[in-house]
Fold:
Amino acid sequence: MSSPHRDESPTSVRWLIVLMLMGFTFLGHFNRVSISVAGSERLTGPEGMSTEQMGLVYSAFLLVYTLGMLPGGWVIDYLGPRRALTGMGLGMGFCVVLTGVLGWLGLSIVSLWLPLIAIRGLAGAVSVPLHPGAARSVSLWLPLASRSTANGLVTAGALVGISVSYPGFGWLMDRLDWPLAFVVSGTTMMVFALVWFRLSADDAAGHPWANDTEKNLVQSHGRLPPRTKASIGDFLSLFRNRLLILLTLSYAAVSYFQYLFFYWIEHYFEKELRLPVTESRQAAFHVTMAMAIGMVCGGFLADYLCRRFGRRWGCRGIALVGMGLSALFAWVGIAAKDPGQVVLFFSLALGSLGLCEGIFWTTAPTLEQRSGGLACAFLNTVGNAGGLLAPVFTPWIGKHYGWTTAIAVACLVCGFGAALWLWIDSDAVSENLTRT
Structure:
């Protein structure tokens, strides 16, 4: 007589986790980029801050975010992604609320410069677990064959958040003014963090809704062992891992290219192309939404190509084609004269770049099987070290050499990052999991 559980279908709690992680990345980046929407439309100008000052406000977040990334990776491995992400959501939401409170103090816009730098620095510190924690959660919940799809969906949530922030946060400012818009946005993230804490778990084994079939599915298909603490040796091993070093350098190039668009694309449309505010918001929305679509498609495509051709050439092909086309389309975009063509080619550029996002977050935690959170944090540390240069260098290059040159520099950086994948062997992922 057969067991009543032998043919039981796996539950889908793992995809609920992915859905909630998408919500986290959506709200995290909506709140992160909302400052650039307020900066472009309310905080910079003749009676406000200069673009250089606003660039320093943006970079304050990225600098502290980058410096705190490795300690944050240890926190993720020690506390688990459930608690780490809950703390991130509550902390980031509080900082966004605090930004809005500044606007109620009756101070001039110019005098808010230093307080904003302090608040954005704090926001950078508490935001550290967002992407490493999400990627670690995916590595603990999803079998390897589905992880690029899951990571593509999660990172797409971030780009949807960025895309919606231009018209969405702009709409909130139009209706509520910028201080209350920040308060509403930050409060929403804090509430979501509490929902996540109630409904999530660190892995399938610890979730009451996951049945035995789902638990076995995850356990038997390349699930990495959880890590409760990290030693100095674990930190040092990151710097001895040649593949991880190459991966993170490539991601730094991706981040530089991304952050130029995230923080300055609306400014470029409004101030350089002279588009009206509403059209600038919509153009920025379309460009960044294209990257979200690319991330979703890239995750599915990467998993398919890896099954068909092996992880080495599946991931390598996605990276070379996606990053190469991204640089090419952006180069064509800066040469275009018609604003509609600029938006089209910039959309194609970020859409192509989005194809590659999932393979970074799938590969990193499996290259360091003992400390997946640290590996993801290391990826994000080096990535943001490249990314934090864009908000400061872009307006400087634009001021002295023109915005066309500033975007051309980003194209060259992106092409360099693509070339690094010629030496990145993702088959090492499968070998690591086989030895686990």
In short: DSSP finds 19 helices and no strands in the chain. Residues 13-198+216-223+232-435 form a domain with the Growth Hormone; Chain: A; fold (CATH 1.20.1250.20). Confidence is low (pLDDT under 50) at residues 1-5, 430-436.
